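[Meeting: bench + compute handoff]

Bench side (C.D.) handed over the final construct sequence. Compute side (W.E.) agreed to return the predicted structure before the next meeting so the bench team could plan truncations. Sequence as handed over:
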Amino acid sequence: VSTQSTGNDSRTMCGIVAILNTAEDITTLRERCVQLGKMIRHRGPDWSGIWTGAGCCLEHERLAIVDPEGGAQPIKDSSGKVVMTVNGEIYNHKHLKANLRDTSTIVSGSDCEAILHVYMEHGEAVCDMLDGIFAFVLVDTRTEPATWIAARDPIGVLPMYFGYRADGSVMFSSEMKCMIDECPSFEIFPPGHVMTNADTHPRQWYKDKWVDEVIPTTPLDLKELREKFEAAVVKRMMCDVPYGVLLSGGLDSSLVASIASRHAKKRVESGEELEAWWPRLHTFSIGLVGSPDLKNARSVAEFLGTVHHEYNFTIEEGLDAIKEVIQMVETYDITTIRASTPMFLMSRKIKAMGVKMVLSGEGADEIFGGYLYFHKAPNAAEFHDETCRKLKALHQFDCSRANKSTSAWGVEARVPFLDKEFVAYSMQIDPAEKMCTDGRIEKWIVRKAFDTPENPYLPESVLWRQKEQFSDGVGYSWIDTLKEVAESAVGDAQMSAAGKRFPVNTPTTKEGYRYREIFEDIFKGHKSAVDTVPGGPSVACSTAKAIEWDESFSKMADASGRAVAGVHVDAYEHAPEPAAKKAKTQ
């Protein structure tokens, strides 16, 4: 299995818990934080760390990806007065450390230690200086009383929640299961936000132009687009443990696998001068027997020459896992549960092989309008606004799914499409170039950027394959069976009274009712837990606003891509020739 040696860097993905500004007895506080950490130990099964002081407690559950023997947390400065617990990867840590006014205070090779030292010199401006993904809480006891800062990465690739305990202390955690018995109310800590002891609520620090939904006009440069994405993938190949790529056989994961396979033979942080320890890339796919994903993933793996691992799951195995999936992914969203289940099952198989990190393809559909309903966008402005809405909400859907489905088994998923620089660049491209007009297939500009016949990245059949949502691609009968099970499990009388039982985000289908019932049982009906899951109508993963694009959308209540008639080649309601048939139209 492929690895890339990176010297003494200490990247860690993990779980964090923090309780701040409490008058609670320090021994009791420490014992409580230890117990809370155990609730998310699946995120970091390799080691635990804890720090208490100044009415605060920081707890850390570690998944060691680089430098497994070093990189302990919580991280402290040389004086021991500034302490941080962090879940993250900082890709520009060497640059940040080299530009510190005082480099003598650095105590390890940890990439995340850079956060601490840059904070000590620049304060909360540290957030915008970081190139990476992160959720951290830092306590500075150099002041009296102690000060603290908490922050989350721009897109929300890594999860974090915050709330107030009954004694008024503030609490942060990687997963909300830690909050249920601790906080009368809690919320998702918003992506791209920061909070300090002077605040009562997080403030936005990330202010790229797309966040304000400004319509961009930058001309399309296919070569530059290709180079920037390739850099985003390579950046994430730094690893000292076995790793691989999740390969569905669709465009996004296949491009990630293709780029990774081109760079797997050399160690990334050596400037690709030294030989890799295991130069053959491993790829992983899952599906029902005969599913579209398995067939296409197999052809991609053969084309790329990867060591491919194909897992079959049965519908019964999927159904058996639903309750555990809802507990781990912490949602009742239909699409997320449909897609999380096979990913959850596959992650267990991957971990059993000794693999601890995987590259994955999330994010492309939000940036480039890859969902099939984007074919119905009425104009470039509406198209762009919808990509902005999707990207802002991604932390509640695919980011959460990818992170929590894999973290449930101590596996880390890295998502190159959500690279900070790549997102900023891609969201400045004129949205007219992204639209599905004149017979163009969805994500045409991405496909075209990697359509290099002289040195092909992928087989043409895959490069120009129509979008399949992961929950569809693992086998259409998976979704059909979920609906059938819900139909028999939930009575008509229950559905007619759904608004009374579930007044917030009332389920509109029996499948949604079933998931909501399970969720409420697991999370004890906590109102704050219910509020963390978005609601509203959706077709093929659209936002509620995009329902206005097509009259037929208002009559549909299904998140599958097959709900978009006249676009999906296997649409529920067949219409004249789908747009996918005209894929390569210029």
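W.E. noted at the follow-up: Confidence is low (pLDDT under 50) at residues 2-10, 571-583. C.D. will use this when planning the next construct.
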